[in-house]
Design a protein that fits this description.
With 262 residues, this protein is mainly α. It is 74% helix and 0% strand. The chain folds into two domains: 1-64 and 214-262, no CATH class; 68-213, no CATH class. Helix 8 (168-205) packs antiparallel against helix 10 (232-261) and helix 9 (216-222) crosses helix 10. It is globular and about 75 Å long.
Length: 262
């Protein structure tokens, strides 16, 4: 029996820890309301100390993963669910110039500036935040997938299958879909970090969750002034976010390497 590689083990641990905390943490977390003086160092009552609002950092870390994981997953799922089929359609027709120019305009907009404008206009809530971030990621997703679908090797195979009378779904959903799977997975792994950054920025601006929420991204922004006075208030949620991104990318890289070997 083949032993799992170091990359798989490390990636599984790095991804599994924040994922498990996000799923089971809210069931184990205690109350997250203010219970002590702000920025209290770790002690017997508060193993990780308290944050700038006097809340237990351990309880915040246990309860703050579900929202950030859910919003990130929803934003990525929406952007790829729309972007991949749209890119395959544009690659097939070799057209859609107006749509591509519109996407280029959206791609040129700074994401943080868009979030600031929406915050000033009064757009609030987790649903609106996920939709806006998914829309901001859509142009880049379409361009990456369309470029992969237009690669010379892929197009030559598509033309050959078309001449052989293969049905449309077998060509574009089957063969071309497999061709773009690798770039999509690589892009999703790197885009995860960008989405987390936008979520943290949006929450800090008040566009998404409330500043008092226990979300990991909110905690990093909310407690940044406590970095040197009460480091766990910042480092614990930050390390959980880094672990989540690193674990996902390690496992995706391993899966792609195994696929290339096969």
């Amino acid at each position: 029996m083949r032993r799992p590689s170091v990359t798989v083990v490390v990636g599984t641990v790095l991804l599994g820890v924040p994922a498990l905390i996000a799923l089971a943490g809210p069931l184990l977390a205690g109350p997250v309301r203010s219970r002590a003086r702000p920025m209290q160092p770790p002690d017997a009552a508060f193993p990780l100390g308290t944050d700038v609002l006097g809340r237990d950092v351990l309880a915040l870390a246990l309860s703050g993963g579900a929202s950030i994981v859910g919003l990130t997953g929803a934003a990525l799922l929406m952007s790829y669910s729309i972007g991949v089929p749209l890119a395959l359609l544009l690659a097939e027709r070799r057209a859609g110039g107006i749509l591509l120019r519109a996407l280029d305009f959206l791609l040129a907009l700074p994401g943080l500036l868009v979030l600031m404008v929406l915050a000033a206009a009064g757009w609030r809530g987790a649903v609106a935040l996920a939709l806006v971030i998914a829309l901001l990621q859509l142009p880049a997703v379409v361009r990456i997938v369309r470029s992969a679908a237009l690669a010379p090797g892929c197009r030559a195979a598509v033309e050959a299958m078309t001449m052989q009378g293969e049905p449309w779904w077998r060509i574009h959903l089957g063969y071309v879909g497999r061709c773009v799977l690798g770039p999509v997975l690589v892009d999703a792994g790197t885009r995860l970090s960008l989405v987390l950054y936008l979520l943290a920025s949006a929450n800090f601006l008040g566009l998404g969750l409330a500043p008092s929420a226990s979300d990991w991204a909110v905690l990093v922004e909310r407690n940044k002034e406590a970095l040197f006075l009460q480091p766990p208030a910042v480092l614990v949620p930050a390390c959980l976010l880094v672990s989540l991104c690193t674990g996902v990318n390690l496992l995706l890289d391993h899966a792609l390497a195994r696929g290339n070997e096969a």
